[in-house]
Design goal:
Two copies of one chain form a homodimer. The first copy, chain A, is α/β, with parallel strands linked by helices and about 350 residues long. Chain A contains 16 helices and nine strands. Chain A has a seven-stranded parallel beta sheet with strand order 1-4-5-6-7-8-9. Chain A has a two-stranded antiparallel sheet with strand order 2-3. The radius of gyration of chain A is 19 Å and the shape is globular. At the A-B interface, α10, α12 and α15 of A face α10, α12 and α15 of B.
């Protein structure tokens, strides 16, 4: 459907010098760049206004609306990245899996994928056909955004968790049972999702995304033994399939403090940290990589003094080391005050600019 | 109520040489001792038979029945410890907080403790008055058990989570909100729970418990920053209040891979590991302490080959180091086959006895 080149030519060289992309490549930056997972969302009144007239699925299907929502936090918060507004399950209809969104539950799959036959029935994924509105939204954002555009996708294990459980499930009990009892089916499913994820992420870069973040949100349920043998090989195949694109590749999961030394060899060039690990200890396990994180999102539900104190702690741990992008350790919580987010962005910029200038 | 001495005199010296207590003290052992969290419970048919005629609360109120249930896994599985059958909320009625058990939910507190006034209303805890049946059960178990008896209690943060949330809540969102918005109330509540926990654990040792395990199950939601400042001081006060008893003090939590270096200075003599961290990397952060763990309980839902493989991986990481007690990384899952648990006990014993003899 699209005949555009994989990387838009106009301004490409200049954009490589934007702070986020320099930090992701561990190059010197004038200040530490910052963005927030779920920065486009319920914490912003302009987003809630959109949601009064459109559901989640509507937004993702409407390129102009999707671009608008994606850019809202760039304007209001002054963050250094725009991350395309989509759901981890957005590509699933493209492989023949219907998803509906249920308030207070999230995405629900009424016909879960649980058997070898279910896996065999999954359709091949064609991004141009399946996620054309999202790709168009990325083109719109790229054309308008003063900051880099991050594309994202769910990692195979986390996507498989949705497919097998039928909904968000932190414990992933059914998926673990599948791994134990039918490892062939488990690996067949994850392999299919590797192919889907590579095609999906490549299409996003083709449309203008300047970095890709892979969300392996549920991977923290695994022991290092299982992660290394059952999941990491699939993550490696995803990143290997994106390596030639020459964009930063971010791997994020929660509860990964015991897995970081394995994620170090995933092929990611940046590892996102949740808040339950010290940045310094974590980074020591990730030689040669950039890191992103890792303020506890719940701190933002309290007074700003506490936010400032913990943000300083995180920045101090990264001081003098190239390759830190400030973020929360997980998504912005809906009751967060957007003014506090704005103040946090300013704090990160000012504190680290002073340091860079010193 | 009781006039018995703090440590039963008969056989006390001999019992100190039981493998569990030697391993907890990092002394040489003829084989690696093993027990399982939730070893008394739904995985055992004899427990399910008891539950057909008695609820959880009934068991804890009936010393003979409680002792029977506590000893069931010792007979059937051949484990090296008996852990008293109780719930983390068992002492709460003793401070004026009513708890009821709801099937598939767990303990529910209809009048949660959420304000400074609620905290002020908590009653002083008198173990002899509040948990006399449990203490009598410990005496019965101690008299009958060929293996050491472990007493246990919830740690202040995890107990507070039940009190504030009103039920089991992994995210502990309300408790975190209290920490952020009313730190005085938060610390007042945890201080009261320190006093309760010290008195409760001392009473268990007085009744015959030969080690104490403190469960801080929900502490894995915290950043190292908050753990160190808001929670660890309370844990230290609990262990300081037990130090003169000269029994092993075990600290267990889940999701603690990023907190272990802080738990090292908690006053615990043993740290329990969940399955989401490699035993070797974890132990390196716990100089001078014993460790307990850390097989993923979900592995036992698959073929025994997988259990044997991962158990060997764990034992190999501990080989040659004094102070390892084998356990699961969390409680036995109800669908687990007790024959597999028995085989696992035998495997741990035989593999490590061969090594000790080599």
């Amino acid at each position: 459907m699209s005949t555009r080149p994989a990387t838009p030519a106009s301004g490409a060289l200049v954009r490589r010098d934007l702070p986020l992309l320099r930090a992701y490549r561990r190059e010197p930056v004038p200040f530490t760049p910052v963005w927030f997972m779920r920065q486009a969302g319920r914490a912003l009144p302009e987003y809630r206004a959109v949601r009064e007239r459109a559901g989640l699925a509507d937004i993702v299907r409407d390129p102009a609306l999707c671009a608008e929502v994606t850019l809202q936090p760039v304007s209001r918060l002054g963050v250094d990245a725009a991350i395309v507004f989509a759901d981890i399950t957005t590509p699933l209809p493209g492989i023949g899996v219907d998803v509906r969104f249920v308030e207070a539950v999230g995405p629900v799959i009424d016909a879960p994928v649980r058997t070898a036959a279910d896996v065999a029935r999954l359709a091949p994924f064609d991004p141009a056909e399946s996620v054309a509105p999202l790709l168009e939204a990325i083109r719109l954002v790229r054309a308008q955004s003063p900051v880099p555009v991050i594309g994202f996708a769910g990692a195979p294990f986390t996507l498989a968790s949705y497919l097998v459980e039928g909904r968000s499930s932190r414990g992933a009990a059914r998926l673990l049972a599948l791994l134990r009892s039918e490892p062939g089916t488990f690996h067949g499913l994850l392999s299919r999702l590797v192919d889907t994820t590579v095609a999906y992420a490549r299409a996003q870069v083709g449309a203008g995304a300047e970095a890709i973040q892979l969300f392996d949100s549920w991977v923290g349920v695994l022991s290092p033994w299982d992660y290394e043998r059952a999941v990491l090989p699939h993550v490696r195949r995803v990143f290997a399939g994106l390596a030639d694109l020459d964009v930063p590749l971010v791997l994020f999961g929660t509860g990964t403090a015991g897995l970081l030394h394995l994620q170090a060899s995933s092929g990611a060039t940046v590892v996102g940290l949740d808040w339950r690990v010290g940045l310094r200890e974590a980074w020591a396990q990730l030689p040669g990589l950039a890191v992103q994180g890792n303020l506890d999102p719940s701190v933002l539900l309290g007074p700003f003094d506490g936010v400032a104190e913990q943000a300083a702690w995180i920045l101090d741990q990264a001081a003098g080391l190239p390759g830190h992008v400030f973020n929360l350790g997980h998504g912005v919580l809906p009751p967060t005050d957007p003014d506090d987010l704005r103040r946090l962005v300013d704090l990160v910029h000012h504190r680290t600019a002073a340091r860079a200038g010193a």
